[in-house]
Design goal:
Elements: E1 17-25, E2 34-41, E3 47-53, H1 64-71, E4 76-80, H2 100-113, H3 115-120, E5 129-139, H4 141-149, E6 153-154, E7 172-176, H5 188-193, E8 200-201, E9 209-214, H6 231-234, E10 240-245, H7 268-285, H8 291-299, E11 307-311
Parallel strand pairs: 3-4, 3-5, 5-7, 7-9, 9-10
Antiparallel strand pairs: 1-2, 2-4, 6-8, 10-11
Helix pairs in contact: 1-7, 2-4, 7-8
Length: 312
């Protein structure tokens, strides 16, 4: 495991962690079995859970810089391969395509329903997990998935209905480089190809949350530029925090993997910033310790070369 270092912010000592995959849950309603990966520390009890949703096209093996960091610092991290993964290579005309966003939420709810089964499938993990402390996290498309679990309303492009698909088992969220509101601010490409972004309502999100946005993340999905990815913070209710990563593009310095070709802004310092702040938030929101979060809020309030952390 690689853990990047960042001057000025420290955190708790790491411990050994292990990852087990693939754990397979039959899922005939989605047309593909659900493949799951669980990463967990080898010691400790009452371990909180991070339910992580990957970005469009990725899979359960992605995001090692974050997953390894969280698992080695006391969290059970659960990942799945969603239907939009390149590994599954679903045809362009597959009738499931317009509902990819909904299948993702169903995947996560299925994981929550089967926690005991999954926990029992990992050697020496049974009885060590705290099912009452679950945080949903995700990057890009996965950020929307995590948001929906805590109250984000998405108007279904097929039915025109914006349902409440939140899950009371999820206590908080981390949304990394994810989409903002739709409407006229979407580009024609996004409006046509990503219809689940046309109408998002963040006003119903009341659970604590951390939003991470890169100030150079100029996606071809919105006409507003990088500020668009801050909408989950600015448009949701209180008890939220926003980490702005200076110079950060869509992969925030390389969070999607070690030395991955898709990272156009590779920077160990940015990755370390995201590692530290997300872990500090996880420890804070699950009640483990508040010190690192308070330190991050103080150090990143202004005049830090890597980023800014603000809260409301």
């Amino acid at each position: 495991m690689t853990t990047y270092q960042m001057t000025g912010l420290t955190g708790p000592a790491s411990t050994l962690s292990v990852a087990v995959k693939p754990l397979v849950l039959p899922a005939p309603q989605r047309g593909e079995d659900l493949h799951v990966r669980i990463s967990a520390p080898v010691t400790g009890t009452d371990l909180p859970i991070v339910l992580f949703a990957h970005g469009f096209g990725s899979n359960l093996d992605g995001y090692a810089p974050l997953v390894d960091h969280w698992a080695s610092h006391g969290f059970v991290v659960i990942q799945v391969t969603h239907l939009d993964s390149k590994r599954l290579n679903i045809a362009a005309d597959d009738p499931r395509k317009p509902r990819m966003w909904r299948y993702r939420v169903q995947d996560m709810r299925r994981i929550l329903d089967e926690l005991e089964t999954l926990e029992a499938s990992v050697p020496c993990l049974a009885g060590r997990v705290d099912h009452s402390r679950i945080v949903a996290a995700g990057h890009s498309f996965g950020g929307q998935t995590a948001g929906i679990l805590v109250g984000l309303r998405v108007r279904d492009p097929q039915t025109g209905i914006a349902e409440d698909l939140s899950d009371p088992r999820v206590m908080a969220s981390i949304q990394l480089a994810t989409a903002g509101k739709g409407g006229d601010e979407l580009t024609p490409f996004a409006h046509e190809n990503l219809p689940w972004l046309r109408d998002q309502d963040f006003s119903h999100i009341t659970a604590p949350g951390l939003v991470v946005a890169g100030d150079k993340d100029d996606l071809p999905l919105s006409t507003r530029g990088p500020a668009w990815t801050s909408d989950p913070y600015t448009l949701s209710r209180g008890n939220k925090s926003l980490l702005t990563v200076y110079g950060g593009e869509h992969f925030l310095g390389g969070i999607s993997g070690y030395q991955v070709a898709e990272t156009t802004d590779e920077d160990p310092g940015r990755v370390a910033l995201v590692q530290h702040v997300t872990l500090a938030f996880l420890r804070h929101v699950t009640g483990i310790d508040h010190t690192d979060w308070e330190t991050a809020q103080s150090r990143l309030a202004d005049a830090h070369p890597l980023g800014r952390l603000e809260s409301k």
